Amino acid sequence: MKKTLLRGWLLGLIVIALAGCGNGGVVTADLNDVTEPVDNVPVSEVPVEEAPVVESTVTEEPEDVEVVSDLDYEQIRPDESGEIMIVMYHNLSEKNTTYSRTIDSFKSDLQRLYDMGFSAVSMRDYSDGKFDVEAGRTPVVLTFDDGHRSNFNYLETDDGLMIDPDCVVGILDAFYEENTSFGKAAVFYLNAGNPFGQPKYIEQKLLYLHEQGYEIGNHAYNHENLSELDADGIQKALGKNVQHFNKLNQDLVMESLALPYGKGPQNEALKIYALNGRYDGFEYNNRTVLRVGWKPYVPVYHMDFNEGGVHRVQSGDADMQLTWWLDEYEKNPHRRFISDGLENRISIPSEHLDRINLDAISDKELFEYTLEDL
Ligand SMILES: [Zn+2]
């Protein structure tokens, strides 16, 4: 069984190599097709001008095939069309409520995510559809709205400033030190008002976020309700906020928007301004617009992806909140996005190929596979 799978895998590699040189179309490799001699690559899949490459590759002996087996498709069963959670947090405080989480509960969330095979990724990587996580793990995006001080707090000590070990940044930094395969990533959706509650340290905090690979996102200058604004109003609310943070740190670019109150523009004609606009000569471009709640979402190259209405999972223990969804994934692990560990390849079981929007995979390779005993 092992050997036949490996031969199928080699066939897959050959077809991918050709597609990479050719028109970049759909790549298919049926791992059931193991009784076929390797040199029976269907003629229809081989561009004529690449024929010499096929001949030289398929003359390899079966022994060489063993070398190729760096990913065990049968065991890992990657499915990069599966669900991805974008988790929404707000404050850390004494009680668990809709908009706050206790420090202990937040730490427990991280531990459970890690233990269940999730790894934190940036919103930028999510938007690129590229995930630098180990094979078999599932990306998760951690988002924090409103710039609470509990998200990023400095303690003034006799030895100077130190990051509060009980604020979100302190907790994420420490968790990463202990569990590097969880990754270190989070995005903070900020308003201009008083982000992170210590105005004299805001530039220092933004610099730290940038240096550590964290991100900031747009949450409107005054936390405006975009459903009450016209085109000029929306562009002012979003563009002025980008302008404000750009003055504080040019390197931290806002590339996504979390809708204040979860409310987007009131009609179709205005929706474009949630994504792109201009204020005072200053342009903004949001690659994703995030709603509030209530379910996991899909990768950007999924047929159901809508950049203007990305769902989030609220933190918390109630129905349809994070704890509930993790329980659901324990019962139905096949729903999850399972990584192949390769940033530039999208691995899809053949039964899910119809989920993929071929126009949205950009320069990545699409690798379809089938296992005999699925
Ligand atoms: Zn908010």
Output the CATH topology of the largest domain. Answer: TIM Barrel
* Relevant CATH superfamily of the largest domain: Glycoside hydrolase/deacetylase
* Largest beta-sheet details: 8 strands, parallel
**N-C termini distance:** 14 Å
Question: Helical proportion?
Answer: 25-40%
Q: Describe it for me?
A:
- With 374 residues, the chain is an alpha/beta fold.
- It has helices at 2-21, 51-58, 62-65, 73-76, 103-115, 123-128, 168-178, 202-211, 231-248, 268-275, 322-331; strands at 85-89, 91-92, 100-101, 118-120, 138-145, 154-157, 160-163, 187-190, 215-218, 256-258, 276-279, 282-285, 288-294, 310-314, 345-349, 365-369.
- The chain has two domains: 2-70 and 344-369, no CATH class; 85-335, Glycoside hydrolase/deacetylase (TIM Barrel, Alpha-Beta Barrel), CATH 3.20.20.
- 30% of the residues lie in helices and 18% in strands.
- Strands 1, 4, 5, 8, 9, 10, 13 and 14 form an eight-stranded parallel sheet that branches. Strands 2-3 form a two-stranded parallel sheet.
- Strand 6 (154-157) and strand 7 (160-163) form a beta hairpin.
- The protein is globular, with a radius of gyration of 23 Å.
- The two termini are 14 Å apart.
- It binds zinc ion.
- Residues 145-146, 219, 223, 260 line the site of zinc ion (ZN).
